[in-house]
Amino acid sequence: MPVVEYAGQSIEVNDEGFLMDSSQWTPEVAEAIAKEIGIDELNDQHWKVITFCREDAAKQGTPPGLRRISKNSGVNMKDLYQLFPKGPGKLAAMVSGLPKPQGCI
Amino acid sequence: MTTTTINEPVISGQPTVADEEPQREPIERVSIICSKGSLDMAYPGLVMANGARMMGIEAMVFFTFWGLDMITEKKVDNLHVATVGNPALPMMPTMVGGLPGMEAVASKMMKKQMEDLDIPPVREFIEMLSDAGAELYACRMAMDMFKLEETDLLPQVDEVLTVMDFYEKSAGAQIIFI
């Protein structure tokens, strides 16, 4: 597995760039991942999504799908696509340091 | 000197170095044709289109023939699972499937299963696709066939297209027919 340097930390990621160990995640790591996927700066809306994803994953044991995020995070579907134009389904989880969601919705 | 063998037959199941993951062009745009309006045939196209958007792939959906029911205001909430002649229901004898009320029972069961999986009803799914930036198009010919006006369609529908328009809009897309 590749090891990358995020915010001064050596972090193991899989081939798609998802963190192998979500406990290595910090807000600074999130900023670094965001830059990697073309998001220059994480705004309040991004943080709302990230906070929800991490809390929900901790409770459910699996990262939330997009519909779940849009229904429960306070950020609607349209905005999710604005925040992660290259595909919120994968990228919200990636920035949150979680594995790739397994659901199709 | 090393010897090289040209055109050595590749024995399947024995990957060679050259066999490793070939670099393929990622899909950038999909064009999905939804031609069927029964509940069990409505979802596949919607899920495929939405999945594409979730990973940043452009998606357009073209609703034609009975697929139009999915975007018709009066039909969208009443799509049914066919219980007669549906090969996906082999356990249901045709005579039983034809009994009054069977379609309603099967449809209700399917809706419940979908909701359990966090898959929304078709009307909400269409809204979700629209919010996700998928382009939604109705087929001109099918509209004429069913005597529908644009005002009969859901507001999320972007445009009514002829088949020639459809091909223009599908430029660069992988076309999927359902």
Q: Kindly report the name of the CATH homologous superfamily of the domain at 28-80 and 120-177 in chain B.
A: DsrEFH-like
- Molecular shape of chain A: globular
The helix/strand class of chain A is mainly alpha
Strand content of chain B is: 5-15%
Number of strands of chain A: 2
* Percentage of residues assigned to helices of chain B: 25-40%
Largest interface (CB within 8 Å) is between: A-B, 19 and 16 residues
**Mean pLDDT, all residues of chain B:** 86
In the CATH scheme, the class of the domain at 28-80 and 120-177 in chain B would be Alpha Beta
Bulk shape of chain B: globular
Q: In whole angstroms, how far apart are the ends of chain A?
A: 28 Å
Mean pLDDT of chain A: 92
With strands numbered from the N-terminus, the spatial order across the biggest sheet of chain B is 4-3-2-1-5
The first-to-last residue Cα distance of chain B is 56 Å
**Residues in β-strands, percent of chain A:** 5-15%
Lateral arrangement of strands in the main beta sheet of chain A: 1-2
Poorly predicted parts of chain A: none
Brief rundown of the structure:
The complex is a heterodimer of chains A (105) and B (178). Helix content of chain A is 47%, strand content 8%.
For the structure shown, list the relevant keywords.
heterodimer, A: 105 residues, two-stranded antiparallel ribbon, 5 helices, B: 178 residues, alpha/beta, Hypothetical Protein Ychn, Chain: A, 6 helices
Detailed description of the structure:
The complex is a heterodimer of chains A (105) and B (178). Chain A has one domain (3-95). Chain A has five helices and two strands, in the order E-E-H-H-H-H-H. Chain A has helices at 27-36, 44-60, 66-72, 77-83, 88-95; strands at residues 3-6, 9-12. Chain A has a two-stranded antiparallel sheet. The longest helix of chain A has 17 residues, at 44-60. The mean pLDDT of chain A is 92. Chain B has a domain at 28-80 and 120-177: Hypothetical Protein Ychn, Chain: A, CATH 3.40.1260.10. Chain B is 33% helix and 13% strand. In chain B, helix 1 (39-54) packs parallel to helix 4. Chain B has a five-stranded parallel sheet with strand order 4-3-2-1-5. Chain B is globular, with a radius of gyration of 21 Å. With 178 residues, chain B is α/β, with parallel strands linked by helices. At the A-B interface, helix 3, helix 4 and helix 5 of A face helix 1 of B.
